[in-house]
Amino acid sequence: MTTIEAFAGPLSGYRRVVIKIGSALLVEGRGTLKRGWMESVAADVARLRASGAGVLLVSSGAIAMGRGVLKLPKGRLKLEDSQAAAAVGQIALARAWAEVLGDHGITAGQILLTLGDTEERRRYLNGRATIGKLLKLGAVPVINENDTVATTEIRYGDNDRLAARVAAMMGADLLVLLSDIDGLYTAPPQADPDARLIPVIDRITPEIEAMAGGAASELSRGGMKTKIDAGKIATVAGAAMIIASGKVAAPLSRIDAGGPHSLFRPEASPVTARKAWIVGHIDAPGVLTIDAGAVKALKQGRSLLPPGVTRVDGDFHRGDTVIVVDEAGNELARGLVAYDAVDARRIRGQNSAVIETILGAPGRTEMIHRDDLVLKGDLGD
Ligand code: GLU
């Protein structure tokens, strides 16, 4: 048996790595998978595992693959069409991954996630346990969004952020986004000859965000913007992120050999997994405006109580993530709200004795408990 050469460069030393693979890398023509390329990635995965890392793949390509097979029109697909395309594409995609990984003696396990699986605490803990078990058993989870049942309102929509949520959920220390670009450039490289690749990004500043622009290709949903969003989710949770091109064979070997890529460093003191989960929410359906007294209490590490809430916007349920702003609209914190929006509106500005009368039952007194609250300062900004 030949021994697999472990990575010794930029990809060495990681414990748990999530690799996101974009649709355009996997599918060509009218729905053909690039089998040879997938084989090279499987060999890279074997090397990464030989370097001591557990590996998870977040693979796009179901819709791109299925639309070709079903001969659906070019351009943006209607929701029902993309759901049907995903059903056809996912089965072939998962099978192909199982086969190419199997050639290296690696077992693959398919996981299809819907938004609620990472956004709702109970389902999140459940998903984490299943994926954790697969890793413990030595398998490679192959993850995608469950596009056949995802609807517009309840979807990640792009696998960049899905992969970042998975990286945070699983306590990964590295997220690799393989796409059709070498990394983050100072300006769009097609348009600006002076554009430079930024090799290391210490922090995602507004300047970095401005460089990301918006463009996405027809096959994949995420442009550079969703990659930066993914970077925020991952780095806050303590994972580094690498953006590199997957348009070459063995793209991970190329990164490790010093090939072009951008590395986003993780936050030096990441918040706890639970707080990272709270701030990484894809959607925050509500906004609570609070008065000066409550701002002070929050800054002292106290809970947000109903009397300090002056305004409630949005439609949310108990347990959803909401944004907390001051009277001037500046974001101060995010947290898991303890009441549905209807009740939050009824009890805002009230003290606990009155709240009991309003709700007709003793409720919890906090609007957001301090354990469920993440101040902006906690994230180092
Ligand atoms: N989940 C989609 C698919 O498998 C891809 C989303 C994306 O391109 O980011 O087709």
Walk me through what this model shows:
By secondary structure, the protein is of the alpha/beta class. The chain folds into two domains: 253 residues, 3-Layer(aba) Sandwich (Carbamate kinase); 101 residues, Archaeosine Trna-guanine Transglycosylase, Chain: A, domain 4. Helix content is 37%, strand content 18%. The protein is built from 14 helices and 15 strands. The strands form three sheets. An eight-stranded mixed beta sheet has the order 5-6-4-1-7-9-10-8, sandwiched between helices. A five-stranded mixed beta sheet has the order 12-11-13-14-15, with helices on both faces. A hairpin with a 3-residue loop joins strand 2 and strand 3. Helix 2 crosses helix 4, helix 3 crosses helix 4 and helix 7 runs parallel beside helix 9. It is globular, with a radius of gyration of 22 Å. Glutamic acid binds next to helix 3 and strand 6. The site of glutamic acid (GLU) has 15 residues, from helix 3 and strand 6.
Q: How would you summarize the topology of this molecule?
A:
Layout: E1 16-21, H1 23-26, E2 27-28, E3 32-33, H2 35-50, E4 54-59, H3 62-69, H4 79-102, E5 108-113, H5 115-119, H6 121-136, E6 140-145, H7 159-169, E7 174-179, E8 200-201, H8 206-212, H9 224-236, E9 240-245, H10 251-256, E10 262-264, H11 273-279, E11 286-290, H12 292-299, E12 309-314, E13 321-325, E14 331-336, H13 341-347, H14 352-359, E15 373-375
Parallel strand pairs: 1-4, 1-7, 4-6, 5-6, 7-9, 8-10, 11-13
Antiparallel strand pairs: 2-3, 9-10, 11-12, 13-14, 14-15
Helix pairs in contact: 2-4, 3-4, 7-9
The protein binds glutamic acid.
